[in-house]
Amino acid sequence: MLDLDYSWLADPAYQSWLVVGVINTLKLAAISSIAATLIGMLGALALTLRIAWLDALIELFVEVFRNTPPLLQMLFAYFTLSTLGLQVTDPDTGLSMPLLSAFACAAISLSLFGGALAIEAFRSGIETMPRAIIEAGQALGYSRWARFWRIEAPIATRISLPALTNILSNLFKTTSQASVITVPELMYYAGQIYNDNFRTMEVMILVLVIYVTLVSILTYLMARLERWMAFPGYGKAAS
Amino acid sequence: MTHPEALIEIKDIHKSFGKFNVLNGIDLTVRKGEAVCIIGPSGSGKSTILRCMNGLMPIDRGTIRVGQHQVHSLKTEKAMRPLRHQVAMVFQQYNLFPHKTALENVMMAPIQVLGHDRAEVEDRARKLLDKVRLGHKADSYPGQLSGGQQQRVAIARALAMQPDVILFDEVTAALDPETVKDVLFNIRELVEEGLTCVLVTHEMGFAREVSHHVCFTDHGKIVEDAPPAEFFANPRDPRTREFLGQVL
């Protein structure tokens, strides 16, 4: 039988590790989610311009980041960005240190990874726009830009939301891989704790519960957003 | 022959999709205040004529004049905009914006495209919704309205642009017979008020009662263009006779 012992949770050192870990996980998830969403919107927007070289560039970006493991991307970001000569001198210690911290490298690589997926999500929302809607906008005299902002973008955003929810919840879980490049987030501290107290099973169960809780909150909020933005006939109708 | 009083003047327009010639030399004149019905078998180019009139579809050859606009020479969407303020269109599938309420659908373009005053536009939009007898549905989304109601909102949306002409593209084709009546009632009212209307339709009874002249299209040509009494009682072209024999 499992003989679970959680008495170590009373230790203030473990408590503070867990709290810091959760806070860093939330920070990393929030920053990369927002950046990924923005990259997705901008990328999909750029694709509507139908500029051949820009399309090719975005296509390449999406393919590279979608078709490689995020862990590899993170290691790549960590080791290349920190050795590219981007060094600053710490004003306090006088020591030379990388300009980009492990956290920054993780945030950048996760943003790009999520952004590549988000571009596809928003692109599909724009491309499934019924021809009829576009024609109606044209017939009413909307310019191409006004049509995009007033009509197509709001509809496409609503259509893309369920796909975006998937991407962001996956991105949230992928933040755990930042532990490999020493970002002190939840997974990193979990390792610290079980290396210290050997209560591997207990620590893993606790971390699992924390992730389930946090990701559930995220998907709940996204579902609320979806319902708030819904309109009858598309997705979750409010009526 | 030019018609100085003609609001729309179409001369010898041609249009093909690949090898298929949809329009094979169409001539059509619509005077101010007239209602013109275009009927004909499917694939004969009826809807294409309407789409060419407001520049939704470029033509290969010929000339189209609407008011002071030479439609065939407008190349960019920007150049089309003054034309589109003058020519409104109502579609078979209503084409309302699904993320906006009925009232917002009617108000959007006058505010966002024409830059009219919001309060004035709202007043105008509410009156137009009352006119199509949907004042009580102002806050409903298209997805909450029946097909006939959506189509009447689409008519109100077209009217809100205060156009000189409205093009109706088979606007009752997707509706069930009861709601067709309501939509036709609204269109008849507009014709009686003197608004210029060009209608592609399969409603023969409506064409006979409302229009000033009726055109019959076949294989990309207008083979008959006559006042309704003459058109229905005594068609000259054998193809018109055959078609009317099938549908009446």
TrEMBL record, chain A:
Coiled coil: none annotated. Keywords: Amino-acid transport, Cell membrane, Membrane, Transmembrane, Transmembrane helix, Transport. One of its GO terms (cellular component) is ATP-binding cassette (ABC) transporter complex. The chain crosses the membrane at residues 28-49, 70-88, 100-122, 203-223. Residues 22-219 form the ABC transmembrane type-1 domain. It comes from the Bacteria. One of its GO terms (biological process) is amino acid transport. The keyword Cell membrane applies. One of its GO terms (molecular function) is transmembrane transporter activity. PROSITE patterns: ABC_TM1 (PS50928). Part of the binding-protein-dependent transport system for glutamine; probably responsible for the translocation of the substrate across the membrane. This is Polar amino acid transport system permease protein. It comes from Alloyangia pacifica. The lineage of its organism: Bacteria, Pseudomonadati, Pseudomonadota, Alphaproteobacteria, Rhodobacterales.
UniProtKB/TrEMBL annotation, chain B:
GO terms for molecular function: ABC-type amino acid transporter activity; ATP binding; ATP hydrolysis activity. GO terms for cellular component: plasma membrane. It holds the Pfam family ABC_tran. It is found in: Cell membrane. The keyword Cell membrane applies. Residues 8-244 form the ABC transporter domain. InterPro entries: AAA+_ATPase, ABC_ATPase_HisP-typ, ABC_transporter-like_ATP-bd, ABC_transporter-like_CS, MetN_ABC_transporter-like, P-loop_NTPase. CDD domains: ABC_HisP_GlnQ. Keywords: Amino-acid transport, ATP-binding, Cell membrane, Membrane, Nucleotide-binding, Transport. SMART domains: AAA. It is a peripheral membrane protein. It comes from the Bacteria. Belongs to the ABC transporter superfamily. This is Polar amino acid transport system ATP-binding protein.
